Amino acid sequence: GNNLVERNVFASLSGAIGVSGGPMGDKGDNVIRNNVIGTDPSGTEPFATRSGIVNNPSAKRTLIENNLIAATQNNGIVLNGSDSIARGNIIGANRAQTATLGNSGVGIFVSGLNQVVENNVIVASSAGGIQIRGSGEDTHDIVRGNFIGTTANGSQFGNNGIGVEVRTVGAVLIEHNTIAFNSGPGVGIGGLGPVG
């Protein structure tokens, strides 16, 4: 635990970053920050990478922050484990958010317990913006302040599918997001838990 992965460029790889706990007790509190995944260092040219950042089921309290993730052949970010945060990431666009570079999976896939997805830009993903599949009634996830299918300047970079798809029996708070230009509904609810 307590590892920092910062200011690296990952391109043309089978996978960029995987975070795991481990058999020797709590291995949480890792930080993945300011990395470039699936593009050149300038964040303008795509170099396909199979997967972006994967927080594995054993990982706890991971902070995934301010990364550029594009041209992945799978999901941009996977939040398994528990009590982790994906914040301020750009997924599917170039660094300037003026063009799309795409992403072949879901922008951010959420599972596990008590995850937070906030202030991200998620565009041009082939399987939707955010998908939440909780692990039980005890989970409480938050989706807040994201741009999904668009950017702060209003670019029409829609995702293919639902903006935020919820399939969990846990509780999900969805607030203060800007969701537009996706091919499916802004929010789709398929679980049994409360959604606010």
What order do the helices and strands come in, and which of them pair?
Elements lengths: L3 E3 L2 E2 L6 E3 L11 E3 L2 E2 L15 E3 L7 E3 L2 E2 L7 E3 L5 E3 L2 E2 L16 E3 L5 E3 L2 E2 L7 E3 L7 E5 L2 E2 L15 E3 L4 E5 L2 E2 L7 E3 L7
Strand content: 25-35%
* Individual helix count: 0
Summarize the helix and strand pattern as letters: EEEEEEEEEEEEEEEEEEEEE
Shape: globular
Question: Radius of gyration, Cα only, in angstroms?
Answer: 15 Å
Largest sheet, in brief, is:
7 strands, parallel
Quote the average pLDDT. Answer: 91
Question: Termini distance?
Answer: 33 Å
> What proportion of the residues is helical, as a percent range?
under 10%
Give the strand line-up of the largest sheet.
1-4-7-10-13-16-19
Number of strands: 21
Query: Which structural class do the helices and strands define?
Result: mainly beta
Uncertain spans, ≥5 residues at pLDDT below 50? none
What report would you give on this structure?
With 196 residues, the protein is mainly beta. Helix content is 0%, strand content 31%. The N and C termini lie far apart (33 Å).
What keywords describe this structure?
globular, mainly beta, 196 residues, seven-stranded parallel beta sheet
